[in-house]
Structure formats: structure tokens, C-alpha cells
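Revision sheet: C-alpha cells.
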Amino acid sequence: MTTRLQTLEQARLCHQQGRFHVAADLLLQMFRIDPTDAEVARELGQVLYAAGDPDSAEDYLRLAWLADPNDSTTVSELLQLYTDLDRPQEATEVLLASLDSGLEPSELAMH
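Predicted:
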């Protein structure tokens, strides 16, 4: 039986290889099992964005961010998405809310 970590690593490898649909399928299966898993939601958002679906990517990245607004990787991904989509107001809101909830600016600078 494949563990959560093994499936997550397999999805990341598929993402790196440009096999976005395979990665998304694996992550969607995991998300259906546990829709509260912020890491899976973030990974799914990253894959969907790379696959050219920014609307769905935003949905999953926001779910991950709402679950853990202090996760610097998720915040960075959302900021990048909003910057790429020329939506500075949303980027500012995410950044300020995350900083208010305790995200250290130095953690964000590492991404």
C-alpha cells in the first residue's frame, strides 16, 4: 500500500517532469480523502497553475492558505499567482493577513 508521503513525492516528481495531469490526478485523489490537508491543496494549486489553470489553482491555494496562513510556501505561491494575474489588491490582502497572523517576513523572503 502506498503511503501519503510516497504519493505526494510521486505527484511532485510528475509535476517536475511536466506530467501535470498525472500529478493532478494523484493529488485530487489525496484531496478527496482529506480535504483539510493544506499541503495537498497547495501542491494541487501549484500543479494546476503550471498546467495553465489559474482559476482552479487559486481555489486550491486559497484553501491551503486559509488552513495555514503562516505557511511561507503557500503565501509565496499565492503572491506569485496574484502578481502574474495583475491582481495587486489580493496579493496585498494575503500578505498583510499572513503577517498579522504571525508569518515572519524573513521566512517569506526565502521563497
